[in-house]
Amino acid sequence: MIGQQQETQLREGLQSLGLALDDSIVARLLAYLALLLKWNKTYSLTAITEPERMVSHHLLDSLAALRPIAGRQPQRLLDVGSGGGQPGIPFAIVQPDWQITLLDSNHKKTAFLQQAVIELGLRQVSVVCDRVENVTAAPYDLITSRAFADLADFVRLTRPLLAQGGSWAALKGVQPFEEIAALPADIASRIEPLTVPGLGAERCIVWMEPKA
């Protein structure tokens, strides 16, 4: 059950991240977590089932990347391999002006995502159930992934969907130097370390974009 303890934990984490959010946004973030907890019993959306760990590993882990990504001022964002909706749904709750597409090939996961979008009133979010190589949508100026594939495959599979001047932002744990070394020669990359409140593990964003 999501209760006062999780709200306090979330608010303290948001403060650590420098995110001053309205009470209504905090309530929607917790409502999303409650939905994830409820649906997880049937659909196995996440291996993390303890509410306090869900706050740190799903909400704060996603929102630690929000300010760096917001600095790119994305208008159209694609979250590949969205799974239970991280980071796409927390981003959508906090940034209602972003047009976000959540993509996953698992029908159970996209059924949950669609229900979450409806219940949370995320009108700017669309859910697509398909393999990424079958997607032919308009180009995105930012493409994210949290646990989709290694970096070379992520770039290769989503390259046709990247707008001119767009970027990839892969949310990773330990800095993936071997994966970066395997990127195509025409892809520039850099690592931005992240600190996630309450999470005693390394996190980073790997930024990538085609070289000019």
Automatic annotation (TrEMBL):
Record's subcellular location: Cytoplasm
GO molecular function: methyltransferase activity
Presence of the UniProt keyword Repressor in the record: no
SUPFAM superfamilies in the record: S-adenosyl-L-methionine-dependent methyltransferases
Listed EC numbers: 2.1.1.170
Function: Specifically methylates the N7 position of guanine in position 527 of 16S rRNA.
NCBIfam families: rsmG_gidB (TIGR00138)
Similarity field: Belongs to the methyltransferase superfamily. RNA methyltransferase RsmG family.
Name this protein carries in UniProt: Ribosomal RNA small subunit methyltransferase G
Species whose genome carries this gene: Chitinimonas viridis
